[in-house]
Amino acid sequence: MRQTVEAIYERGVLRPLERLSLPDGRHVTILIEEEVPNPLHGSANYPDLLPLAGCLKDSPIFAGDPLTIGKALRDEWTC
Question: What is this structure's pTM?
Answer without folding.
Answer: 0.41
